[in-house]
Amino acid sequence: MIYRMAALAILLAVYFTFDWIWLVQQLRVAVAFCLECWGNEVIFLGQEGISDTELLVENCLLLNFNVGCTYLHLTMFAIPFSWRFRRTFLKNCLTISLVGAGILLLNVVRVAAVTHMSCSGFFSWDVIHTAVDILAHLGIIISFVLMAIRYDLGTVPDTES
Question: Which of 27, 50, 58, 146 is buried most, with the most CB atoms less than 10 Å from its CB?
């Protein structure tokens, strides 16, 4: 568990070192694509490179994306807890890639669904966004920590040959 904590500290240092604006922009594009597929009108605001993190949805909700919206911090958290010491490096890299892709997909659907429900008048943006965000954070953190503890304690059978 000490190695996992050390890796987590390093990954969080990397997270706070970079701007990650390209990831924020890609999240905005992916969310806009989902919303357009669901029939919402989406307008990209801002000039390229200056303020290109804003999205106006249905003229009722202005989204301003930041690095916290990307769930990159959750992906960085999950990486050390996904690592299995008895696996090969390549298998661990594959696992980490799948974990990252899964969290990214969950996040795009989360933001798009919450925005769609909010613009449809079902829920207040603040209430639904916060509730789903807390549930996603708790679910991801608890599941990855418990999986790592089970693995470290040896209660998970070693299926590697």
Answer: 27
Which class for 18: exposed (0-12), middle (13-18), buried (19 or more C-beta within 10 A)? Answer: exposed
Could you tell me which residues come within 8 angstroms of residue 123 by beta carbon, excluding any fewer than 6 positions away? 114, 117
**CA-CA-CA-CA dihedral for 113, 101, 23, 44, to nearest 10:** -30
The single-letter DSSP state of residue 68 is G
Nearest to 23 by CA among 57, 66, 64, 54: 66
Three-class DSSP category at 114: helix
Give the C-alpha distances (Å, rounded to integers) separating 37 from 32, 42, 88, 139: 9, 10, 40, 27
Q: Is 113 exposed, middle or buried (0-12, 13-18, 19+ CB in 10 A)?
A: middle
pLDDT digits (tens, 9 = 90+) for 96-114: 999 999 999 999 999 999 9
Integer distance in angstroms from the first to the last C-alpha of the chain?
23
Asked if residue 37 lies in contact with residue 115, where contact means CB atoms within 8 angstroms, the answer is: no
